[in-house]
Specification:
The protein is α/β, with parallel strands linked by helices. It has 2 domains: 214 residues, 3-Layer(aba) Sandwich (Rossmann fold); 209 residues, no CATH class. It has 15 helices and 8 strands. The chain has an 8-stranded mixed sheet, with helices on both faces. Keywords: Hydrolase, Membrane, Transmembrane, Transmembrane helix. Pfam families: Hydrolase_4 (PF12146).
């Protein structure tokens, strides 16, 4: 290992250690309990004091309790007891998703919240995002005398009135126009904006600047608006200087691991025999044509009756895997060349996947994503990984022998083509609309996987690691179908 690589390794270790210190410090001084009720995983965060208001925090579609932890940390630091949970089919909840049962999930979380010794059962509120927003608004309507406030972030729909739910705050990001329109309709139906907290009929719409459907969850403007609304509802003056920076620590952790991989992999992964480079025309034509053929193929499958939305036991995620399979096979066919797989390549592919798994997921588990797969999800991981393998193999073959500037072009082109290809597919198959959740992830994910291709310089190693890694993300993120 060169001196430069040793310095890079030392820097990576320092960054990883610093990031874990930041994550651990965020929970210091809080009561944290993780447990289960009626098969529903729950997570409780509260201050170390008694008789504080309780807040139920509900995630959205394809979310998890971890994704809502920003609100929990900010509210707990300001004197609120918070309860988060995984809805059926989400996160660590192995129950299959049945929408009519999601309201019951909230009731289970409510009973668990009321059991906690820090909670004042006479002061309760609700907060939910997207799918969860509709569920908390319905709870605030059906049990209007129980909940003093409801906060709907990126709201969907509910039969709101001027009296129910009590003290309704609506939030939407400035970059999510459809949800702004939903929020404006709800505000009008509930009597319009006012500050009548004395009669529990206050109403407000907050537009969070420079935020879309996911980034609003990590936005301090959204967190502080929710805290202000609850403080006014409960006549509390509690404030907190805490700003939720856990995603920044997560980014630092990921950067540290990528630097570690950059320092170590070239020194330990053996170089494979040179594979003759495929012509640029075949590489680029495959990249551009594959999404077009895939969109047409999936549309045809839908027309002959194949149920794509719940394919493979996971909602939308199975269709994403099929998309990558068809696109990858098409791209490989146009490349018309395949390197010979070896046991050595398989071994190093597994090792590299394990390193990526730790780099991306070790901290994600406590910051924003249920990374540990429950058995029901573990069963679908390998099929999804196998489906993704052709695409990443084709990508690795196309990038062999390319220089740094060319690799940047491949990263940019793949990101654009994948986003465009999925948008084209959604134009014909709107029932797969939650594919949109993946679109903001493509540029950073493809950047990470392009780094892997550059470091190992062998298509089968990078393809196996990338496919196993991407399949894991699909298995972890999308809801289990019924």
């Amino acid at each position: 290992m060169t001196r430069w690589r040793r310095l890079l390794l030392l820097l990576s270790i320092l960054l990883i250690g610093l990031s874990w210190w930041g994550i651990i410090a965020a929970r210091n001084g809080l009561v944290v309990r993780s447990f289960e009720r009626e098969g529903i995983p729950l997570l409780y965060l509260a201050p170390q004091q008694a008789a504080v208001p309780g807040v139920l925090i509900a995630h959205g579609y394809a979310g998890s309790k971890q994704l809502m932890l920003g609100y929990a940390h900010v509210l707990a630091r300001a004197g609120y007891a918070t309860m988060l949970w995984d809805f059926d089919g989400h996160g660590a909840n192995s129950n299959r998703l049945q929408r009519f049962e999601l309201q019951q999930n909230l009731n289970v979380a409510l009973n668990a919240l009321l059991e906690q010794p820090e909670v004042d059962s006479t002061r309760l509120a609700l907060l939910g995002h997207s799918m969860g927003s509709g569920i908390v608004m319905n709870a605030g309507i059906e049990q209007v005398d129980l909940f003093d406030a409801a906060i709907a972030v990126s709201p969907t729909g509910a039969s709101v009135t001027s009296q129910a739910p009590r003290n309704l705050q609506l939030q939407a990001g400035s970059w999510e126009g459809r949800f702004i329109a939903n929020a404006e309709r709800l505000l009008a139906a509930s009597g319009g904006s006012n500050d009548n907290f004395a009669t529990s009929t206050a109403r407000e719409l907050v537009i969070v600047p420079n935020a879309e459907h996911i980034t609003i969850l990590f936005n301090d403007v959204s967190h502080q608006a929710a805290l202000r609304w609850l403080n006014t509802t409960f006549n509390q003056s509690s404030t907190s200087n805490y700003v939720d920076r856990r995603m920044a620590w997560y980014g630092l952790h990921l950067l540290g691991w990528l630097l570690l991989l950059t320092a170590v992999i070239p020194s330990v992964v053996p170089h494979q025999p040179h594979f003759k480079k495929v012509s640029s025309l075949r590489c680029w034509s495959g990249l551009f044509l594959a999404p077009l053929i895939t969109a047409g193929s999936l549309t045809l499958l839908n027309q002959v009756g194949v149920e794509l939305a719940g394919l493979g036991g996971v909602q939308v995620g199975g269709a994403v895997g099929l998309w990558f399979f068809v696109a990858g096979i098409t791209w490989l066919a146009l490349l018309a060349r395949l390197p010979r797989p070896t046991l050595k390549a398989a071994k190093w592919g597994l090792i590299l996947f394990a390193l990526l798994w730790i780099a991306f997921g070790a901290m994600a588990q406590v910051v924003w994503l249920q990374w540990w797969l429950i058995p029901a999800r573990l069963q679908i991981w390998l099929p999804l990984a196998v489906a993704c393998l052709p695409w990443f193999l084709a990508s690795g073959i196309a990038q062999q022998g390319t220089k740094s500037k060319e690799r940047f072009g491949w990263w940019f082109a793949q990101s654009v083509i994948l986003i465009s290809g999925f948008l084209l597919t959604l134009n014909f198959l709107p029932q797969l609309g939650f594919m949109f959740l993946l679109l903001p992830l493509f540029p950073p994910l493809i950047a990470v996987l392009s780094l892997v291709v550059a470091l190992v310089k062998e298509a089968w190693i990078s393809a196996l690691a990338s496919a196993l890694f991407f399949g894991w993300i699909l298995a972890a993120g999308f809801p289990l179908s019924g």
